[in-house]
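[job 0417] fold request received: Glyceraldehyde 3-phosphate dehydrogenase
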Amino acid sequence: THGQHKGEVKAEDGCLVVDGHKITVFNEMKPENIPWSKAGAEYIVESTGVFTTIEKASAHFQGGAKKVIISAPSADAPMFVCGVNLEKYSKDMKVVSNASCTTNCLAPVAKVLHENFEIVEGLMTTVHAVTATQKTVDGPSAKDWRGGRGAAQNIIPSSTG
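[job 0417] inference complete; emitting structure tokens
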């Protein structure tokens, strides 16, 4: 998207090294098995889209995480959007959600509009890049027939967070 990286990228001793900066990487499906404390990581961004409840995201604590931020909507974790409701956050919260990318795009603007002009009703459209759950070529979809269309060749209407 932004052209070829001009620096050096290599794998070395279980780390990804980018321009001399070592980044520890893990190959682990279960968050409770990731040794966060060994890597010096305290604040974890849970962005798999799988561990989106407090119970599931809390598995990161077994590896030494201190706090977990879920990068998707959550059924039970408190959700925060910067510029909208961050004042409700308290330091004792260990697992929080940063809501969805759609919410983070719309909510700050909607808040300003509502506070200054009052929004009574509204509609919005999101144009989103291809996601990991979309098909690369046409095929069957368990969700709905639109979800089976090849994502790179079609604009596919879908619900979003």
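[job 0417] notes: The longest helix spans residues 101-117. The CA atoms of residues 146 and 154 lie 10 Å apart.
[job 0417] exit 0
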